[in-house]
Each structure stands twice: as C-alpha cells, then as structure tokens.
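We emphasize that the prediction below concerns an isolated chain of 68 residues; any contacts that depend on oligomerization or on bound cofactors are therefore not represented. The input was used exactly as deposited, without trimming of termini.
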Amino acid sequence: MAKKRRRSFITSVLACIAFIAAAIWSWDLPVADVLSYLVLMLLFLAGIVALALGFGALLNWLRNRRDK
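Result of the prediction step, given as a token string:
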C-alpha cells in the first residue's frame, strides 16, 4: 500500500509542475513572477510552521507547569 501512496504523491507533484509549465507557456507568464510567488509562498509557509512550533512549545510549557 505504501508504494501506491508514494506513486500517487509523485503523480500529483508531476501534474502540478505540468500545470505551472503550461501556465508559463500558454499564458506567457513571466518566470520571474512564478519565482517571486514561490518565494512568497515559502516565506508564508515558514511563518506558519514557526507559529505552529511556538504554539506547540507554549502548550507543552503550560502542560508541564500544571503537572508540577
């Protein structure tokens, strides 16, 4: 079952790359715009992950403080 799940993930990633390539080619989307959107998306993702880690650390601290 794990191989099927991995194959599905790879297929999804390839489809996403093909869609982005089709958008660049057919709509004459500048590659610089695509890269700037990618950087912006990665920055937002890093912010969300940092926020989640902060809340997780806060919850862990509160839970450990209550147990003592």
